[in-house]
Design brief:
Shape: elongated
Largest sheet: 8 strands, mixed
Number of domains: 2
Number of helices: 11
Structural class: alpha/beta
CATH architecture of the largest domain: 3-Layer(aba) Sandwich
Helix content: 40-55%
Strand content: 15-25%
Distance between the termini: 98 Å
Low-confidence stretches: 68-95
CATH class of the largest domain: Alpha Beta
Radius of gyration: 29 Å
Strand order of the largest sheet: 2-1-8-7-3-6-4-5
Mean pLDDT: 77
Length: 327
């Protein structure tokens, strides 16, 4: 065998070894990616389940629902459904067994929990009084699984990006919409950002007071919810009243204390449109076949559809939450 032949064999051998090493490296990379995705998905499910159960344990929430059906615009379709704090179905990627056991236990005790057939899958804005950092988590946790999967919290960007763990919870676990409260401009418009993040599938949880209250009074609502409803009039606006949440995690306290609380979901409302009729002009025209001097008056009217005023709408939303307080 010539030197040239040996050289070619050596080159082919090392090429084959290189291809084999590259194939092994690709296989290891794919395995690593698959394991990483599996661990990441497991951690997300773990934290979601842990947070949901912890929120329900801390709040001991007694949840009252008003039916959110497709035809819930009609007042005669209102039906009250009561469930315990553990009534919400868990996420599909969470424990299906836990969901089935929960439903069987509730059924055994004569309890009802919302289901997809009864409540539908409309886009909604859940709005509530705000007294604690746990408010949005408790609302999110008591939602049935089919609603929770499509509902996103709205959170302050400066708070939830302050550390890596908070950032992980906000983006991966809660899939929250982070709002920049410090740099607001025409381009950085919170209403447009929320509508864009909602798309055509997601619902959101907001607190129109704009900050945490004392738990006793509900302050006047900010205008953000009005502009959201005005730009998308088909959104269902679901009022929620949170009772006793301020005692579980008061302002300035780090560790929450388990307390009994109530989460009351009200009947949906929509922004109202009103038709107005205005007289624009009055003209005189001759009566056919009669003296030209004899004339009849014709009135011209214009019809205009106007959206409910901001002050009236915000007052109506606040009153919807206040009405739930007395239930």
């Amino acid at each position: 065998m010539t030197v040239k032949g040996l050289y070619r064999k050596a080159v082919n051998f090392f090429r084959a070894v290189g291809r084999m090493i590259a194939a092994v490296a690709r296989a290891l990379r794919r395995a690593y990616d698959a394991v990483s995705r599996g661990i990441s998905a497991f951690l997300v499910v773990f934290w979601r389940t842990a947070i949901i159960l912890t929120a329900k344990f801390l709040s001991g929430a007694s949840v009252s629902w008003v039916e959110l059906a497709d035809d819930s615009r009609r007042d005669d379709q209102i039906e009250t459904v009561d469930s315990s704090g553990f009534g919400g179905a868990s996420d599909s990627e969470s424990s299906t067994v836990l969901e089935k056991i929960t439903r069987l236990l509730l059924k055994a005790f004569g309890k009802k929990i919302p289901d997809e057939r009864t409540f539908g899958r409309q886009q909604r804005i859940y709005f509530a009084n705000h007294t604690s950092h746990l408010d949005s988590i408790v609302i999110w946790s008591v939602l049935p699984g089919f609603l929770r999967r499509e509902t996103r919290m709205v959170a302050a960007k400066d708070y939830w990006t302050a550390g890596p763990f908070r950032r992980y919870l906000a983006k991966k676990v809660f899939n929250a919409i982070l709002i920049d409260r410090k740099h607001i401009s025409i381009k950085n418009n919170q209403v447009n950002q929320l509508l864009q993040e909602m798309g055509t599938d997601h619902s959101i949880i907001i607190f129109p007071e704009g900050g945490r209250g004392d738990g006793e009074t509900i302050r006047p609502f900010k205008s953000g919810i009005y502009y959201l409803a005005k730009k998308n009039p088909e959104l269902e606006l679901v009022p929620i009243y949170l009772d006793n949440m301020n005692r579980i995690l008061p302002r300035g306290v780090v560790l929450p204390v388990p307390m009994l609380s109530r989460v009351i979901f009200g009947s949906p409302i929509w922004i109202q449109k009103k038709e107005t009729m205005e007289k624009t002009e009055t003209t005189k025209s001759p009566i056919p076949g009669e003296n030209i001097s004899e004339k009849t008056e014709e009135e011209k009217w214009s019809y205009e559809e106007r959206v409910e005023s901001k002050d009236d709408f915000l007052r109506r939303c606040r009153e919807a939450v206040l009405e739930l307080k007395d239930l």
